[in-house]
Design a protein that fits this description.
With 267 residues, the chain is an alpha+beta fold. It is built from ten helices and seven strands. It folds into two domains: 79 residues, 2-Layer Sandwich (Phosphorylase Kinase, domain 1), CATH 3.30.200; 174 residues, Orthogonal Bundle (Transferase(Phosphotransferase), domain 1). The longest helix is centred in the middle third of the chain and has 20 residues. Bound molecules: adenosine-5'-diphosphate (ADP) and magnesium ion.
C-alpha cells in the first residue's frame, strides 16, 4: 500500500461500473491520466483489507507489455483505491457495444487473440490463472496496445461471492462442474471471447445463468461458421487435458500467421 491520498487525484469520468466497483479516469498532481478503481469494502463481506492487498500484490509483481500496469493502491475511509495505467480506448466489450455492434473483423479478432495469448503465456508460466478472461477485461489504447486487465481483486471478490452472482458464460465446463481452476480454464474463456468478438456476444447470452450453465456442461463445445473454426477447435475442447496451452496456440499456424494488432488500422 502506498501513502497516496485521495486528494492527490481528480476523478474525471466513469470508465466502467459493476456491482462491485467503479473505475474512473483520473488525473494526478503531475497532470498525468490514470485509471482508479474504487471498491467499497462496506458493501462486500470483506473486513480484511490485507486479503485484498495480498491479491493486489500479485498484480503489482506483473510487468508485461500485454498487461495493464499496476500503479499502487491505498485505503480511503471504507474504500480501496487501486491505480492503474489508463487505457484510452477502453475495452473490447465497450467497442462491441458502441461501435462494432455486429462484431469485429477476422484479422482484428486474430490479432487481439494473439496479444492475449502472449499475456496468458506469461501469466501461466508464472502459475497465475486470470480466471476472468472476456472482452470487458481486454483493454486497448490509441497506441494500438492490447492489455489484459482486472487482476486479483475481482478474482478474490468474485471467489467470495457465490459463482452464481456472476455470469457463467465464459466459464469452462470443468470450472462450472467442480469449481476447480487450472490454467486451461483461461484458454476456454479466451475461446468464448473469440466468439464474443465475432458475434458481439458469447454463446447462450440470451439464457438465464443456470440454464446457460447446464448447456455449457451438457452440450458440445460451441463454435462459429467460417474461418475461426480451426482456432476454436483448439481452444474450446471440453476435456481440459486435451485443450491447447497458450504456448502451443502461439505456435499454431493460424496464430503464427496472424498480423499483429499494431500493423492493423486503428479500430
Ligand atoms: N485501466 C483502465 N483504463 C480504461 N478503462 C478501464 C481500466 N480499467 C477498467 N476499465 C473499464 O472499467 C471496466 C471495469 O473494470 P474492471 O477492472 O474489469 O473491474 P470489475 O472487477 O468490476 O470487472 C472495464 O471493463 C473497462 O471498461
Ligand atoms: Mg472486469
Amino acid at each position: 500500500m502506498d501513502s497516496c491520498n485521495s486528494k492527490d487525484f481528480k476523478l474525471l469520468t466513469i470508465l466502467g461500473k459493476t456491482k462491485l466497483s467503479t473505475v474512473y479516469k483520473a488525473l494526478n498532481k503531475n497532470k498525468k491520466y490514470l485509471a482508479i478503481k474504487i471498491i467499497d469494502l462496506k458493501r462486500l463481506d470483506l473486513k480484511t483489507d490485507e486479503l485484498i492487498m495480498r491479491e493486489v500484490n500479485i498484480w503489482s509483481q506483473l510487468q508485461h507489455p500485454n498487461i495493464v500496469a499496476y500503479y499502487g493502491s491505498f485505503i480511503h475511509k471504507t474504500f480501496v483505491w487501486i491505480k492503474s495505467e489508463y487505457m484510452n480506448v477502453n475495452s473490447i466489450r465497450h467497442l462491441l457495444e458502441n461501435k462494432y455492434k455486429t462484431g469485429l473483423k477476422y484479422e482484428y479478432i486474430l490479432a487481439i487473440t494473439k496479444d492475449v495469448l502472449i499475456a496468458l503465456m506469461y501469466l501461466h508460466s508464472n502459475n497465475i490463472i486470470h480466471r476472468d478472461i472476456k472482452a470487458a477485461n481486454i483493454l486497448l489504447n490509441s497506441n494500438k496496445e492490447i492489455k489484459v486487465a482486472d487482476f486479483g481483486v475481482s478474482r478474490l471478490i468474485k471467489g467470495k461471492v457465490s459463482t452464481f452472482t456472476g455470469t457463467p458464460l465464459w466459464m469452462a465446463p470443468e470450472v462450472l462442474q467442480n469449481e476447480i481452476y487450472d490454467i486451461k480454464a483461461d484458454i476456454w474463456s479466451l475461446g468464448i471471447t473469440v466468439i464474443e468478438m465475432k458475434t458481439a456476444k458469447p454463446p447462450h447470452a440470451e439464457l438465464k445463468p443456470l440454464k446457460a450453465m447446464i448447456k455449457i456442461i451438457t452440450q458440445p463445445a460451441p463454435s462459429v461458421k467460417g474461418n475461426l473454426k480451426t482456432l476454436l477447435k483448439m481452444m474450446l475442447i471440453k476435456d481440459a487435458t486435451k485443450r491447447y496451452t497458450a504456448e502451443r496456440l502461439l505456435k499454431s499456424n493460424i496464430i503464427k500467421k496472424a498480423r499483429l494488432f499494431k500493423e492493423l488500422e486503428e479500430l
